[in-house]
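Students often ask why inverse folding is considered easier than folding. One informal answer: many sequences map to the same fold, so there is more than one right answer. In these notes we will look at a single instance of the problem. The structure comes first.
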C-alpha cells in the first residue's frame, strides 16, 4: 500500500522559514518523480514544485522560485520542501504526491497533508 506522510507544518512568520517532510512507503521511491502541491483556504489544489527521479532535476511554480527548495533523500524515502521568505499567501495545506509537474494535482497518490499558516 502506498503511503505518504507529511509533517513539519505549523505557524510561520512572514519572512520566516519552515521545512516540510514527506516519508514514503509502499512503492519504489527512488524511481518516481515526486511533487508538492497545496490547497489554500477556499481554493483548489495548485502545483508547487517537483523533483525528478534519477538526476533529481527540480521544477518550481513562479511564485515560489527563489524561496522554496525541493529535495529528496532516496536512502530515507523522504521528500522535503524547504520554505524560506514565507508570505501570508503561502498559507495552505501542503501535500506530497507521486507525479511530476502540474498534473500531479490529479495524482491518485497523495498524503493527508500538513497545514502551514503564515501570520504575524
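Output (designed amino acids):
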Amino acid at each position: 500500500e502506498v503511503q505518504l506522510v507529511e509533517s513539519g507544518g505549523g505557524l510561520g512568520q512572514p519572512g520566516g522559514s519552515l521545512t516540510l517532510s514527506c516519508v514514503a512507503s509502499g512503492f519504489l521511491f527512488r524511481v518516481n518523480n515526486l511533487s508538492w502541491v497545496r490547497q489554500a483556504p477556499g481554493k483548489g489544489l495548485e502545483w508547487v514544485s517537483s523533483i525528478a527521479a534519477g538526476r533529481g532535476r527540480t521544477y518550481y511554480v513562479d511564485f515560489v522560485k527563489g524561496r522554496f527548495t525541493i529535495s529528496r533523500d532516496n536512502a530515507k524515502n523522504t521528500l522535503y520542501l524547504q520554505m524560506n521568505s514565507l508570505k501570508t499567501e503561502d498559507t495552505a495545506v501542503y501535500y506530497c504526491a507521486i507525479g511530476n509537474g502540474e498534473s500531479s494535482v490529479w495524482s491518485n497518490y497523495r498524503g493527508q497533508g500538513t497545514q502551514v499558516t503564515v501570520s504575524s
